[in-house]
Amino acid sequence: MQFTAKQIAQKLKGTVEGDENVLIWKPCRIEEVDEGGITFLANPKYTHYIYERHAAAILIAKDFVLEHPVDATLIRVDNPYLCVAKVLHMFNSASKPKKGRSLRSSVHLTAKVGKGCYIGEFAVISRKAKIGNNVQIYPQVYIGDYAEVGDNTILYPGVKIYRECKVGRNCILHAGASIGADGFGFAPTEDGSYNKIDQIGNVVIEDDVEIGANTCIDRATMGSTIIHQGVKIDNLCQIAHNVSVGKNTAMASQSGCAGSGHIGQHCIIAGQVGIVGHITVGDNVTIAAQSGVTRNIDSDSVVLGSPAMPADRQRKIYVMQRKLEEMYKDIALLKKKLQ
Quick one: pLDDT at residue 94? Predict the structure, then answer.
């Protein structure tokens, strides 16, 4: 698949400086771009590459000022980082989705499968399950009894969707994602053992959600664990029973939320964040990497540390911690003088 700079600029609503008919064969990293490649400049520390590499075209901001002439055709856009995502989609959409059902798959007689679906080898669609149109079900996917999958959703190899769980339209679930395993519910007994608490709820994943590889979203004890529209969850994350994650929130790898927590809309949860159960994180909250959230967080906050607290306060504490050894010596000297 190839495009001209003019075709890409029209798609991005950008303007062309240079040869608008130059052919572009592939997107490239700015450090590696060469003839026929298109790249982008969004971070100033990579600016020197646009003068050193010989790209076919470069996406740059409309207000970017060149220090030297460049060989490449420039496509000026409002947001180069966002536009490169659209360029990648242009090239990726050239490969057509798979269709057809493998003879090695298993579809229950009572299951309903929509038009244009792909069902790969050793995939299992169980009793009374409902599959929408144009769903991509890769090999070794399991879809349990009464589960539902919406139109245009992609289930990559090894995805497991337990009974009665629902996945919306235009979702992507990556390899090994587990949807609807039992929540971690056990009642301690007098002899120190545990009685299992049956988990009879489900998981509801709304439209346009992406779930990373080997991420686990547990079913509710009662009711639903809910992942709202547009949520993006990275690989190796844990969402416990009865958690709700608000619209368009993003969660990075190795983060987790304990049971019955509520995470608001448009939040950013960085890597290795832990959120305790039964608390509320407001809307538009940013939680820095490796933070431990132990109490409610108000909307529009930025927090970090463990326990997490307002970022400005935690940064001051970090500065003081680096001076602890020096402070200890000063206190010891003062004590000696006082004695």
Answer: 57
Mean pLDDT of the chain: 96
DSSP β-ladder status, 57-61 and 124-125: unpaired
Of 86-90, 105-109, 164-168, 207-211, least confident by mean pLDDT is 86-90
* Percent of all residues in the chain with a pLDDT value above 70, rounded to a whole number: 99
Annotated catalytic residue 266: no
Q: What is the pLDDT of residues 58-69, one digit of tens each?
A: 999 999 999 999
The DSSP code sequence of 214-270 is: T-EEEPPSSSEEEE-TT-EE-TT-EE-TT-EE-TT-EE-TT-EE-TT-EE-TT-EE-
Measured distance CA(263)–CA(279) in Å, rounded: 8
Q: Which CATH superfamily is domain 3-92 in?
A: MurE/MurF, N-terminal domain (3.40.1390.10)
Is 42 strand, coil or helix?
coil
DSSP of 62-130, one letter per residue?
Answer: TT---SS--SSEEEEES-HHHHHHHHHHHHHTTSPPP-EE-TT-EE-TT-EE-TT-EE-TT-EE-TT-E
The whole-angstrom separation of Cα 244 and Cα 263 is: 6
Whether pLDDT at 153 is above 90: yes
Structural domain boundaries in the chain: 3-92, 101-313
As a whole number, mean pLDDT of residues 82-102 equals: 87
pLDDT (0 to 100) of residue 93: 73
pLDDT at 95 over 90: no
Q: What angle do CA 290, 171, 90 make, to 5 degrees?
A: 100
Instruction: Tell me which of 241, 262, 266, 278 is the catalytic residue.
Output: 241
- What's the alpha-carbon Rg for the chain, to the nearest Å? 26
Q: For the whole model, what pTM was predicted?
A: 0.88
DSSP state of 182: P
**Nearest-angstrom CA–CA distance, 256 and 235:** 11
Instruction: Say which CATH superfamily domain 101-313 falls into.
Output: Hexapeptide repeat proteins (2.160.10.10)
Say whether 331 sits in a helix, a strand or coil. Answer: helix
